[in-house]
Amino acid sequence: MSEDQKSLKQIIDFRKEKLQKLLDAGIDPYPQKYEPTHFSLDILNDFENLENNDVNVAGRIMSLRKMGKASFFHIQDGKGKIQVFIRRDDVGEENYAHFKLLDMGDYVGVQGYAFKTKMGEISVHANSITILCKSIRPLPVVKEKEGETFDAFIDKEQRYRNRHLDLIVNPVVRDTFVKRAKIIRGLRDHLDNLGFLEVETPVLQPLYGGANARPFTTHHNALDQQLYLRIADELYLKRLIIGGMDRVYEIAKDFRNEGMDRNHNPEFTMLEFYWAYADFEDNMNLVEDMIQSVAKNIDALQVTWGEMEIDLSKPFQ
């Protein structure tokens, strides 16, 4: 066993000991439900109205400064991060002792009021704390000081293989997920407003087509038949056009059993639409309008691609 493995095992064993102490004290470290009233960003953005008012937040502990009778820690929720101040005299000696069994990565709920510290940081003054999830494995260590990050989780191989950890310790990655969801919603809204109908076509197909690519194959036991994961949506969408559905589209997963690089993935999402009685210029105009509309919605009309600066607000040529 390597030194790193020994160290990890020691950390896990130590955290399991803390977990057992919580259980022995009658604390359920994995309750089924908790109802926060605010996100961290709500408090930070609306502090003027929330100052000294009751708030209830929940999130993962991302930094922890345990002291004698009072401590500070930061929790991270779905919208950001906020500091919490906890004092033994406010939460009681027993609850404060339970708090001292917590580590970075644990989830907690905090009921208290919004205030600003002497250093000017908007925070939550805890009146009570609820343990929501005791974490056994440690997070990758990421240190911050005065806005600068140290020991960041930056290894791309590890980040892509452990996307959940990447989201935890590199919150900016979350913006990519949010932006992607907005793009998909914008594409749907644009096509729906033009009278297109979103449909679902078969993923498993007896004959693959619509593109020149090698498929993934599987076997349907009940039919004793070889089937293929689709490489494109095209053929089934065209059948709908034949059937009299004049405007159809699908945002779907396609699969191609070929090489991988930064521009190609065996599983990817593709939008295909088909439009009866329209020519290629109609399609070109639709795509231009749709891209501009979606880019405007996510505030991305100016795009940097490599060394190129692209202005999506201008007419496409």
Quick recap of the structure?
With 317 residues, the chain is an alpha+beta fold. It is built from ten helices and 15 strands.
Description:
It is a single chain. With 317 residues, the protein is α+β, with helices and mostly antiparallel strands. The chain has 2 domains: 3-139, OB fold (Dihydrolipoamide Acetyltransferase, E2P) (Beta Barrel), CATH 2.40.50; 172-311, 2-Layer Sandwich (BirA Bifunctional Protein, domain 2), CATH 3.30.930.10. 33% of the residues lie in helices and 30% in strands. The strands form 5 sheets. Strands 1-2-3-5-4 form a 5-stranded mixed beta barrel. A 3-stranded mixed beta sheet has the order 8-12-13. The radius of gyration is 26 Å and the shape is elongated. The model has no long low-confidence stretch (mean pLDDT 91).
Rg, please? 26 Å
Question: Shape, please?
Answer: elongated
CATH fold annotation of the largest domain: BirA Bifunctional Protein, domain 2
Strands in their spatial order, largest beta sheet: 1-2-3-5-4
Total number of helices: 10
Structural category = alpha+beta
CATH superfamily of the largest domain: Bira Bifunctional Protein, Domain 2
Question: How many DSSP-defined strands?
Answer: 15
Number of domains: 2
Q: Which second-level CATH architecture of the largest domain applies? A: 2-Layer Sandwich
Q: Helical content, roughly?
A: 25-40%
Q: Main sheet? A: 5 strands, mixed, barrel
Instruction: Please provide the ordered H/E string of secondary-structure elements.
Output: HHHEEEHHEEEEHHHEEEEHEEHEE
Average pLDDT for all residues: 91
Distance between the termini: 61 Å
Low-confidence stretches: none
Strand residue content: 25-35%
* CATH class (first level) name of the largest domain: Alpha Beta
